[in-house]
Specification:
D-amino Acid Aminotransferase, Chain A, domain 1, Rossmann fold, five-stranded antiparallel β-sheet, alpha+beta, globular, four-stranded parallel β-sheet, about 325 residues, 3 domains
């Protein structure tokens, strides 16, 4: 019997139903799963970890040092450290997907320019959002580079809203630094990483997808499930932000785009959020290596362990090592 560890941040509620779902799915494929929690980013075996060496580790949080330590012991980690680092970084993942030929909104982040909060006019110029007819700025998205659940994401329509959103970014950075001082590493393991994660990402707003998107779950090389997320009261469709969901037939282009995005990021298990581009196609909004699945109608844990079982826990090299597989990822049938 294969044995693995399911590792969560210590802040995870102990009554989380997902623990049981993962254990039951693993058992159906002849695997045993033990749940552990980490408190800090120390490299090495967790306190309370079993003496046996796991055949695999499922990381349900971001702990780079711990993830790399298990990989150094020859243990398969899902997702790989490098792929998790990539997909956590909204700006870098957009750059990688675009380089792979993936359809992504125009994206800008002031990296390495000495200015973390560029002027409103500069953002508009960088994103090409000036309306040629009257010189006004087309609305755009501002979001923190590290974030989830639709939190700290803003639709900017004027300079006042832009300045207010930047102030929220500054306040969130202070909050995350305070959390880090208490050993909570959800948004960074060093002050420098926290600051980088709180740098604003400026992105083209896809108006045709306002308040709706398609979440696609990918396991291995298959689509494991999908759902339409929508919100009639907000531009954000996230379920955690008040959105709703329902099943729809998955367009073939949406499936192929999601699979290619997961491949480009080197993810074995992924949640891919797709925007409607207004022309019958899709743009990749974000890709998540630690995706929740409360809204899924399919049994996502079952699909994950089926994929692991079929791979005999010998994941393809790009998944195990997190190798950049972006080149030609979107050149699929």
């Amino acid at each position: 019997m294969k044995r693995g560890l399911l590792i969560y941040p210590s802040t995870t509620p102990r009554g989380n139903n997902a623990f049981g779902w993962f254990r039951e799915a693993a058992a159906r494929y002849g695997m045993e799963l033990e749940v552990l929690f980490y408190d800090s980013p120390g490299a090495g075996a967790l306190a309370g970890a079993p003496a046996w060496t796991p055949d695999f580790v499922l990381m349900r949080g971001y702990n780079t040092a711990l993830s790399r330590w298990y990989e150094s012991q020859g243990v398969t980690v899902v997702n790989s450290t490098d792929s998790m680092i990539l997909c956590r970084d909204k700006y870098r993942s957009a750059v990688v997907l675009a380089a792979a030929g993936g359809p992504v909104p125009r994206t800008f982040m002031p990296v390495g320019q000495g200015v973390r909060y560029p002027d409103y006019a500069e953002v508009a110029g960088r994103l090409g959002l000036l309306d040629s007819s009257d010189g006004t700025v087309v609305p755009f998205i501002l979001k923190l580079n590290y974030g989830s659940k639709g939190e700290n994401v803003f639709l900017i329509g004027n300079e006042r809203e832009y300045k207010e959103a930047l102030e929220v970014c500054r306040m969130e950075e202070q909050h995350r630094l305070e959390e880090l001082s208490r050993g909570i590493t959800e948004f960074g393991e060093t002050p420098e990483e926290v600051a980088y994660g709180c740098t604003p990402v400026l992105q083209e707003f896809i108006a045709s997808s306002r308040g709706r998107d398609i979440r696609v779950w990918v396991t291995g090389d298959e689509v494991a499930g999908h759902v339409l997320r929508y919100n009639d009261r907000s531009f954000k469709s996230n379920f955690a932000a008040g959105g709703s969901f329902r099943q729809i037939p998955l367009p073939p282009e949406a499936a192929s785009t999601a699979l290619a995005a997961a491949r480009a990021a080197g993810l074995f298990f992924a949640g891919v959020d797709l925007l409607f581009d207004g022309h019958g196609g899709f743009k990749v909004c974000e890709i998540n290596g630690n995706a929740g699945f409360r809204t899924a109608s399919a049994d996502i844990p079952d699909a994950l362990f089926r994929a692991l079982s079929e791979a005999h826990l010998k994941l393809r090299d790009e998944h195990v090592r997190g190798r950049n597989t972006a080149v030609d990822a979107f050149a699929i049938p």
